[in-house]
Structure to design on (179 residues):
């Protein structure tokens, strides 16, 4: 089944809340991924003061401020332009998803937080969540979660050395079927 056919989507938590508030036919089914973001930087960490962040990512901004008091400024940047701002020196660091950070291994990175937080949730159409097709999806999803939580497997899928994954705190969360 395609994502369109099964009428579900993984959303950042804050986007999901807005989506659910605007559409009574969908619900946040449950958390899906924890700790999926990192702060990538080009030069010395001690000199990082200004951070580029994708527009609308207030949760990540708050988490970064709490974790790293040295961060003074946050600049909203389009998703497509975020790495350009880092390379061009417009910002000292950027907050990005670990899957995107894996594609630019030349940058150092740090976990966004020292504490667990929810990065993505599953939003599903309420009626669809009651179907056999959705039940089958949850079973398949949970099987994928088991594999993705193995560092060797995740590293292979991201195309990075296992060591690169070791210090990341990303965790894929299983979903529970509701009766």
């Amino acid at each position: 089944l395609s994502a369109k056919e099964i009428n579900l989507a993984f959303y950042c938590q804050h986007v999901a809340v807005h989506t659910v508030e605007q559409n009574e036919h969908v619900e946040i089914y449950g958390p899906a991924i924890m700790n999926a973001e990192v702060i990538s930087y080009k030069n010395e960490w001690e000199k990082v003061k200004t951070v580029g962040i994708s527009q609308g990512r207030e949760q990540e901004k708050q988490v970064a401020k709490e974790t790293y008091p040295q961060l003074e400024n946050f600049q909203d940047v389009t998703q497509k332009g975020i790495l350009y701002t880092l390379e061009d020196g417009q910002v000292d660091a950027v907050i990005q998803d670990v899957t995107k950070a894996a594609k630019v291994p030349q940058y150092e990175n740090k976990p966004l937080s020292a504490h667990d937080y929810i990065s993505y949730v599953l939003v599903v159409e309420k009626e669809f969540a009651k179907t056999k097709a959705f039940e089958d999806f949850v079973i398949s999803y949970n099987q994928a979660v088991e594999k993705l939580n193995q560092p060797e497997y995740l590293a292979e899928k991201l195309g990075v050395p296992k060591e690169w994954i070791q210090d990341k705190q990303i965790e894929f969360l299983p979903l529970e079927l509701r009766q």
